[in-house]
Design a protein that fits this description.
Blueprint: H1 2-27, H2 31-102, H3 110-138, E1 146-149, H4 150-167, E2 170-176, E3 183-186, H5 188-204, E4 210-219, E5 222-228, H6 236-241, H7 256-267, E6 271-277, E7 281-289
Parallel strand pairs: 2-4
Antiparallel strand pairs: 1-3, 4-5, 5-7, 6-7
Helix pairs in contact: 1-2, 2-3, 3-7, 4-5, 5-7
């Protein structure tokens, strides 16, 4: 950086001196009457060039540092994910191996064989689901971004999840203060799946039934989506860990669904806030930047 600043200052000094000399010679101006103004001009040009060069180089340096930090974070995330995944995926395979080995026993009753086979298949399905969730988490889904009407996406989500809510005795209510179509930018399938994951978690947090409230609003050019349940709630420590791959408060969960939701919302330049009280319920507040690209609204993916 220092050498570039010196080079830029020298270049500015040379160009300033040449311009002053050209004005003096071409205009026939005595140097004594022009000297103070000329020196001031050259000094300002040199200092200005130094400042601009420093700022440009400092910006480039900061950008390189930022890229290095992002690269290190990605490597750390990949390492954590790989370690967690290898640990978690080993469990269903180990159990499946044990169930299959039991089938070698002689004089094993048919009912017992069927039980072992069913258990092995269940563990294999769990491993398959974990692999699918892991691939969804690591896959880049933001290449085909479209503009989506928030209320329309939520309408689709509610239609899909309603039968599941009914089986858990959960009533879904939707409230909105949005009077017109409001659009956000993102990948439709990923956004819908993220909302489904959060809504499904909220439903499962109410094993005895309850009410799930979904609210939408627009504040300060931000689209707000609130998902509130009346379920078991979480402690402060559980809230802080939520979104970490393979961390879950459910006995048969993997934690990847919530991780996918966090990753997707972050990729849409949004945030997720969690407010929870143990024994009373949880509220997920999603904030997304409102899109103002009216000419792109026909790109909605359905």
């Amino acid at each position: 950086m220092r050498s570039k600043c010196f080079f830029a200052a020298g270049l500015a000094l040379l160009s300033g001196y040449s311009l002053v000399t050209l004005i003096i010679v071409a205009g026939g101006i005595p140097f004594n009457s022009f000297s103070q103004l000329a020196l001031s001009f050259i000094l300002v040009q040199v200092l200005g060039m130094l400042l601009v060069t420093y700022l440009v180089e400092q910006t480039r340096h900061n950008k390189r540092l930022k890229n290095q930090v992002i690269h290190q974070e990605k490597l750390s995330i990949i390492n954590d994910l790989s370690t967690s995944f290898s640990k978690e995926i080993g469990t269903p395979f180990t159990l499946t191996k044990g169930f299959l080995q039991q089938l070698y026993q002689e004089n094993l009753p048919p009912e017992q064989k069927r039980e072992y086979i069913d258990a092995a298949l269940k563990e294999l399905q769990r491993g398959e689901a974990m692999t699918s969730d892991f691939l969804s988490l690591t896959k880049n889904n933001f290449e085909q971004q479209v503009y989506m009407d928030v209320d329309r996406v939520l309408h689709d989500v509610v239609n899909v999840i309603s039968p599941y809510a009914d089986t858990h005795s959960v009533r879904i209510k939707v409230e909105t203060t949005i009077l017109d179509e409001v659009w956000v930018e993102g990948e439709y399938q990923s956004f819908q799946q993220s909302l489904l994951n959060l809504v499904k978690n909220s439903i499962e947090a109410m094993p005895g039934g309850g009410e799930l409230m979904i609210r939408t609003a627009v504040k300060s050019e931000k689209v707000i989506i609130e998902i509130t349940d009346t379920g078991m709630g979480m402690t402060k420590e559980e809230v802080e860990k939520l979104g970490t791959p393979y961390y879950t408060t459910k006995e048969d969960g993997t934690g990847l669904g919530t991780s996918i939701a966090f990753s997707t919302i972050k990729g849409m330049r949004g945030t997720i806030e969690i407010n929870s009280i143990k024994g009373k319920g949880t509220t997920f507040t999603i904030k997304l930047p409102k899109s103002i690209e009216d000419d792109q609204k026909n790109d909605y993916a359905s």
